[in-house]
Write the structure tokens for this entry.
Amino acid sequence: MRQEVVPVPLHDQVIIRRVDPTAISPGGIFIPQSAQSQQQEGEIIAVGPGKFAEFRLCVATPEDWPIGEEFMAKHARIEQFVIPMSVKPGDRVLFSKYAGADVKVRGKEYTILREDAIHCIFTTVDAPQELVSA
């Protein structure tokens, strides 16, 4: 059996394959490669499990004030959890132009970036009549 090396993102990182820029403008004008800017649109290939977070939880009564480090060490409880990702593999997204790191794995180019660098997910919906051009 042949094994393949694949990148697996950690924490709140995502791996994106950039969508090839179109060579023709909406008006039908050909755009040369040198004039095309770096694409900000891509397809998510893989996502990490989510962002790790923790907070200290402490319930104190008025008699306990002022709360010092000694009290917190005895009575505080540290809660740890993972904030789940809001994107999934296959989503088409728009992200910050210079965000992340461009990497090449086995001849394929990917961009690795944090989830908070993603601005929106493209989805198909019925457009309101005022948005539809005549």
